[in-house]
Design goal:
Length: about 450
């Protein structure tokens, strides 16, 4: 079985010095156009009380190219300017839509000018009707208007199909990437007949119900310590205080800090991609703990935010890969005492301190590894509770049938039904399209 998915790519690009200059110029131009368009729309509104359309603004931008002081706009790829206006149009649409449906969802602000920053991006809209004119996609090469051929780290990864939109971006440590998304057919992976419970932790990133372990990423602690040291150095440089002019040495140090940040997040993303791929390959059904609350409580002393981010990343990867490859990703309710319950006889102990790595069930005498037992419980409860009519959504609200007293009968029930091997109800997750299953190099 195969299905069409929107697959996102992000490939490292190497720009020549001229291309870097052209990029910086184009990026500056989009900021200029945005600022000026917003300014003139504002002025027009104040003077007349009516809104100027972006279509009209687009015509004006074309005229700017003829004006003496803005002749330089002619050197900017027109696709980039057009795309900036399109983005602006969308920003306005979002804003007005949010105004209409006030009180629901996120706050959307009025479109603002962009400030110059260490990272930036320009976007090229490719015209499919005249592929010859903008000539972007030829074989394994990307050619961007006014920039020419872009050297890529992995040209072999380029799909044949030309995307509608290509983004060229620079991250805060000065690396360039091209990114785009195309619709692609993805083959589901062969059925393995395996269901896995996954217990997320800090010593091991994941302990599985089949006793396998995925160790935590190595070497990260050292990198993080290094980062903290460099950040301290940065805070001593002139320019770190608000309102202070940033010194050269400050900017240099800032670049260094940015680079370490990028390296850490790359390593983490790479690792999550690999771990999730291994899990998806192995099992048809993957059960996780819901939310990260349990994971966080397991080790309150260690940096919560960091491990939390790692879990979330792994979870996100599992969710969209699961969708792609025909796997089921499900969750055990966060209030199920997965560590305190014996996965063999369902006996529940009162206390399970963090220091206990192995324990013997007082009821059935089974010797448990703490994490493997938890992983097995996660699998059992996610599978059986997930299928109950609406059992799950209510559990997330104020009334939680699984808590305390109400927990016991459900537990019994789940033990009886667990051999029936019914598939859990799939919980819709977020499958962000800006993720790629291959790593960013
Ligand atoms: Zn037991």
């Amino acid at each position: 079985m195969s299905q069409a998915v929107q697959k996102a790519y992000k490939i490292r690009a190497y720009l020549t010095p001229e291309q870097r200059r052209a990029f910086a110029q184009a990026e500056g131009a989009t900021r200029y156009v945005r600022r000026r368009v917003l300014g003139e729309m504002d002025a027009h509104y104040k003077a007349t009380g009516t809104r100027k359309s972006l279509l009209a603004m687009g015509r004006e931008v074309t005229q700017w190219k003829q004006a003496e002081e803005t002749l330089w706009l002619k050197d900017i790829p027109s696709d980039v300017i057009i795309q900036e206006l399109r983005d602006l149009k969308q920003a306005f649409e979002h804003f007005f839509r949010a105004l209409k449906t006030k009180g629901s969802g996120r706050k959307v602000g009025y479109p603002k000018p962009k400030r110059k920053s260490a990272s930036g991006a320009i976007r090229f809209a490719f015209d499919h009707r005249h592929p010859g004119k903008v000539a972007g996609w030829t074989g394994k090469k990307v050619i961007l208007p006014k920039l020419g051929m872009i050297k890529l780290a992995q040209p072999e990864r380029l799909p044949v199909e030309m995307p509608k939109l290509v983004t060229l971006s620079r991250d805060s440590s000065g690396r360039f990437f091209i990114s785009f998304s195309v619709r692609q057919m993805i083959e589901a992976l062969p059925v393995t007949g395996v269901s896995l419970g996954v217990d997320l932790g800090l010593i091991d990133l994941a302990v599985l119900s089949d006793e396998a372990r995925i160790p935590a990423i190595k070497g990260l602690k050292k990198k993080e310590r290094y980062l903290r040291r460099q950040q301290r150095t940065l805070s001593r440089r002139q320019g770190s205080k608000k309102g202070e002019k940033k010194s050269r040495r400050y900017l240099k140090q800032q670049q260094k800090v940015n680079r370490i940040h990028c390296r850490i997040s790359d390593a983490r993303r790479d690792y999550a991609q690999k771990a999730s791929r291994a899990l998806i390959k192995k099992a048809d059904v993957i059960a996780l703990e819901d939310l990260n609350v349990q994971g966080m409580m397991k080790n309150p002393r260690l940096s919560k935010a960091l491990s939390d981010a790692a879990f979330r990343l792994l979870r996100t990867c599992l969710e969209y890969k699961g969708k792609w490859y025909g796997r089921t990703v499900c969750y055990a309710d966060q209030f199920v005492p997965t560590t305190k319950t014996c996965s063999v006889c369902d006996h529940r102990v009162e206390e399970m301190p963090l220091s206990v790595r192995t324990w013997t069930c007082p009821c059935c005498g089974t010797l448990h590894d703490r994490d493997i037992n938890a992983a097995r419980n996660i699998l059992r409860f996610a599978v059986t509770l997930g299928e109950g009519e609406g059992a799950y959504p209510e559990a997330r609200g104020g009334v939680n049938p699984l808590r305390e007293g109400a927990f016991a009968p459900l537990l019994k029930d789940s033990v009886e039904t667990r051999t029936e091997n019914r598939l859990p109800r799939f919980r819709e997750g977020h499958a962000p399209e800006d993720h790629d299953d291959s790593r960013v190099s």
